[in-house]
Write a structure and sequence with these properties.
- The protein has a single domain, classed as lpxc deacetylase, domain 1 (Ribosomal Protein S5, domain 2).
- Helices cover about 25% and strands about 35% of the residues.
- About 40% of the residues are buried.
- It is an alpha+beta fold.
- It has seven helices and 20 strands.
- Strands 11, 12, 13, 14, 15, 19 and 20 form a seven-stranded mixed β-sheet that branches.
- It holds the Pfam family LpxC.
- One of its GO terms (biological process) is lipid A biosynthetic process.
- Belongs to the LpxC family.
- One of its GO terms (cellular component) is membrane.
């Protein structure tokens, strides 16, 4: 499917209150799923099989992960920036008692873009499935479940002034705006400069961003996989041609799914990472060569400065 081909919202989802864009909302309300959905697959880093069940939740719950650990206990961790911990090449959350949930960014991005404010994500392993490296399977799951509007107001984070973080040529900023808008650029050796910009909503996300796959250079991925198996660390153990877009020289093995697929995937990840603020963000984001580390730094810097935003 072309990256820039949006899909119409099916009637089943529209019946549960899905709005085509923020401009049509007169009195926004919180939303959850209209039913539970289950998906299974192997993780990108652990290569372990996991079953994920995403279930509706009442207003004010937010997005919460519940992981069943090997000893039978259940660890709960909210999808909030305070619980984010550094793990290689993914977004990870850690419960107060220590249980980890990793590679949550694709599901969080899809939930955020579709306006799902409240859900409980039950998982029986450490890592969410990577599927084909894109967020399309999560989009399909959300559409299958439908969206249910709740009788509670939806609060949003309105950015009041510029906040930015930098690391060399990498830069990420957010400024005031009436919706979540992203401008992103990325330059990769032999592939050149790539750009994407747009307003984040369900159609734009599913059509332009969700199909874009996790990517990496084969010459770096193979040594990392060998290192992971030699040291016992969970890094890229599940990476293969079916789960990532492998770059060799100036091409993607099997071809790109559309123009500038790598930068679109970086925006996909960014949408998921921004959702860790806990409420939808109204802001204009400019991203240059960003990744998870910089995304998390921006969210933390924004949220630690109450003078930079309002909850409206």
């Amino acid at each position: 499917m072309p990256l820039n081909a949006p899909r119409p919202l099916p009637r089943s989802a529209a019946e549960h209150g899905a709005e085509p864009s923020a401009t049509t909302e007169t009195a926004p309300r919180q939303a959850t799923l209209a039913g539970a959905v289950t998906r299974s697959g192997r993780g990108l880093h652990t290569n372990r099989f996991a079953t994920v069940r995403v279930v509706p939740a009442e207003a004010g719950t937010g997005i919460v992960f519940r992981r069943r650990t090997p000893d039978g206990a259940v660890a709960t961790v909210p999808a909030l920036w305070q619980y984010q911990v550094t793990q290689p090449l993914c977004t990870a959350l850690q419960a107060p008692e220590g249980a980890l949930v990793r590679t949550v960014e694709h599901l969080l991005a899809a939930l955020s873009a579709f306006g799902i404010d409240n859900a409980v994500v039950e998982i029986d392993a450490e890592e969410l499935p990577i599927f084909d490296g894109s967020a399309l399977p999560w989009c399909a799951a959300i559409r299958e479940a439908g969206r249910a509007v709740l009788d509670a107001p939806r609060r949003r984070i309105r950015v009041r002034r510029l906040v930015e973080v930098r690391d060399g040529r990498r830069a990420l900023s957010i400024a005031p705006a009436d919706a979540l808008v992203v401008e992103a650029e990325l330059a990769l050796a032999h592939l050149g400069a790539m750009r994407w910009e747009g307003r984040i909503g369900p159609d734009t996300f599913e059509g332009a961003l969700a199909p874009a796959r996790s990517f990496g250079r084969l010459k770096w991925a193979l040594p990392l996989k060998l290192y992971a198996y030699a040291t016992g660390r969970p890094i890229l153990r599940g990476a293969r041609f079916g789960t990532t877009a492998a770059i060799v020289g100036g091409r993607v093995v099997g071809g790109m799914r559309g123009p500038a697929e790598p930068v679109r995937h970086r925006v996909l990840d960014l949408v998921g990472d921004l959702s860790l603020a806990g409420h939808p963000i109204l802001g204009h984001v400019r991203a240059a060569h960003t990744g998870h580390v910089l995304n998390h730094a921006l969210v933390a810097k924004l949220m630690r400065d109450p003078s930079a935003w309002d909850l409206v």
